[in-house]
Amino acid sequence: MAESAIPPRLTLSSPSAPTQGSDTDIRISAIDIGSNSIRQTIADVSPTGTIRVVDEMKAAPRLGAGLYETGKLSEVAVQNALSTLTRMATLANQLGVKRTEVVATSAVREATNGDEFLRLVKSETGLKVRVLRGEDEARLSFRSALAHFDLGVGRAVVMDIGGGSLELALSADGLVDRLISLPLGAIRSTERYLGGDRKKGMRKLRKHVRVELRRHVSARHWHAARIFCSGGTFTTLASIYLARIGMESAKTVHGTVIPRVELEHIVDMLLNMSLAERQGVPGLNAARSDIIVGGLAVAAEVAARVEARELVISAYGIREGILLESAHVAPSSADPGEARERSVRELAERTHYEEPHSKHVQKLSLQLFDAIGQRLGCIPDDRKLLSDAALLHDIGYHISYDKHNKHSYHLIEHAELLGMTPIEQIVVANVARYHRGAEPKKKHRNYGGLERPVRQTIKRLSAILRVADGFDRGHASAVAEIKVRWVERALRITAVPSHHVYNLRLDLWGASRKSNLLSEVAGVQVEIVAPDGSVTTYEDEVGTAD
Fold this sequence. Notes:
The protein is of the alpha/beta class.
């Protein structure tokens, strides 16, 4: 758990046994009654803002369906919602919840029979519901985003699209400037505009959204602001996008960065599909297939209004904001770098990694990267990917030495690594996977389906990691550092021994044996040079046993 001096961080673990956390934690149930779905999160919240999820439940009674026409919550939706809330109240009681916070959003807020629904909830479940104003929804979404992303510098827009409304929190340097709520939710937009001629309806919908945004959001003042998005519309968007780029195996959509142009492509693709065709789209939950286009069209207009280049997706939202608010945790801008470093380190420690070897391979990998990375086509952000992969490359030993590189891949792929996007996590897992054994091949399921730029990054970083790991073949840190020089038609890597070492034969052999991929990536022969100046290459070592 973080020290009290560290700003609060939202760290969610996987659901686990329903045991109470530490004496200072409080077990809270947060329930969000939305226009499309009702969601519950039960978690232990520490005074510093650490959240350990104990259990979750959700259902989609669609309280907002038909509300635009009738002004009322339908009897069927009300009964389905009551059944869901009864189950949630029972679960909270069985798990020893100390405090329950229930909020309702636009559907209940706007319905003429909203008060009657609240009385039914109280009488049948014992739950007291607080009806949020749209601005309250926006504030809670902002509070959650602030705990996950660095909003402390520059202008940001936190966007949440529910079934009934669009919420925007506009912030500057981590402080809220404006809170906006507009009746532009996914269900409402779909029912009003997309029931007949979809293409004509889409034009009308987007024009209507543009008019509304012009009234409330200054394009000049919020030009090029970063956009952070929460809610089911956006987690679905992220799932579709990840599937499109071969990342279906990503454990979470949290932190997914989606180019604005990709959002527009997805809107066009789904608009031109029938409902049955949409239900077969990878990453798209069939239950949301009828309203997803309306929600995404609204999002596209918001992105266009501020001319954002990309959207960043949060897997968390109002419920996490409720948990922090209920536990009286003051909001504080997250440091993704600190969260990422901590998550990677904790994964390594949980799997009992060999710390001296892993850190030494990490050091040698970064020496190689700094010397040749740019020339290989790497970008500065790749350095951190390599660093994390190097530290975690051997954690598969935790399962078995045999095929431990593949075990490392699966452990990293399924880990909860905060501050790391799904694409970054897949890259780190693959780089660790290819630190030994077979080189990356398109026939490999974990690699072949990825986009070409992602495959190229994995290949370059794996090539570096393989050689660095080879230079510590004996796990004795015998090679203190490596020096690199490009010569005519060759990449020459010289080993500098530690002061106590007199024989580097094993480590030179290891580096030579694992240099083939680097030679391919660099386009020249790789020469491994001993302190006495003798040179070995991959070809010199081919045919010997590993």
